[in-house]
Amino acid sequence: MAGQRRLSVRMGRAARALTAARVAAWYTAMRKFDDPEEIIIAPSILAADWSRLAEEVARAIRGGADWLHLDVMDGHFVDNISFGPQFVQTLTSTNDFFYDVHLMIERPDHYLDRFIKAGADNLTVHVEADHDVAESLRRIRAAGVKAGLSLRPETDFSLVEPYLDQIDLLLVMTVVPGFGGQKFMLETMASVAAAKKYREARGLSFHIEVDGGIYAETAVIARDHGANVLVAGTAAFGAPDMTAAVRALRG
Questions:
Q1: Number of domains the chain is built from
Q2: Which of 66, 71, 100, 168 is catalytic?
């Protein structure tokens, strides 16, 4: 029912006719939340050609990507600024894809409703940000949106443990958040492995996502440690053949 409500909101907001195939693709992406072992490829829009965004998103869809990853940065929580709710709504109103929105912002609680209204399918907030983490997760889920929690490379895994039974996805940053093109930090695999162990020991079903320095070679490492959602920027949008790139990331 939550998925139907989300799609109904999106259909009502967008002045366009949806084909059966596009609706089916959206529901397929939603169903992938049922299996935390299934490999999901999420190209990062930061690496796309912003002068032709609709075409770039369509290229990702045709290339076999499962989700689209959107990094929202406010210039405070991280030392960079990207885009806001209006940008997200522009994408969700023109492409029926699964939008994985990562809020790298100081006060995510202040902006949750705006990104929910913009059409986010998953909203991830940081454990280090200035907000009531449990309340933010509750609000996201109450709106029928999937809830994610993220931690920086230097953050101890113990800080996210109290919330792991309240989330649909845990995002382990594998670079220092804020800029693309950084080298994959192997030491972050300790948190990925810890998340998998914690999930299995308690019978939970959240997805484990990694973001930063993900290419075919590092995707193997992340998968071997327990990650199943792979965010890739340059490796996906920078590839001349998106289909081949997605296949290589999926392994």
A1: 1
A2: 71
Per the annotation, the verdict on 168 as an active-site residue is: no
Tell me how far apart the alpha carbons of residues 124 and 94 are, in angstroms, rounded to a whole number: 22
Return the amino acid letter for 186: L
What is the overall mean pLDDT for the chain? 90
Measured CA to CA, the distance from residue 124 to residue 208 in angstroms comes to 12
**From 96, 100, 121, 211, the catalytic residue:** 211
pLDDT at residue number 194:
98
Average pLDDT rounded to a whole number, residues 232-241: 96
Give the H/E segment covering residue 43.
strand 40-43
The yes-or-no verdict on residue 8 having pLDDT over 50 is no
Asked about 71 being catalytic, the answer comes back as yes
Distance from the Cα of residue 23 to its chain's centroid: 20
Mean pLDDT of 51-67: 94
Q: Per-residue pLDDT averaged across 216-225, rounded?
A: 98
Block residue for tokens 């920086």: 152
Q: What is the pTM of this model?
A: 0.89
Task: Compute the distance between CA of residue 121 and CA of residue 245 in angstroms, rounded to an integer.
Answer: 24
Q: Exposed (0-12), middle (13-18) or buried (19+): which is 64, by Cβ within 10 Å?
A: middle
d(CA 124, CA 170): 8
Q: How many helices (H) and strands (E) are present in the chain, helices listed first?
A: 10, 8
CA torsion, points 142, 45, 69, 24, in degrees to nearest 10? 80
Contact 246, 215 (CB under 8 A): no
CATH code for the domain of 98: 3.20.20.70
Q: Which domain holds residue 139?
A: 2-250
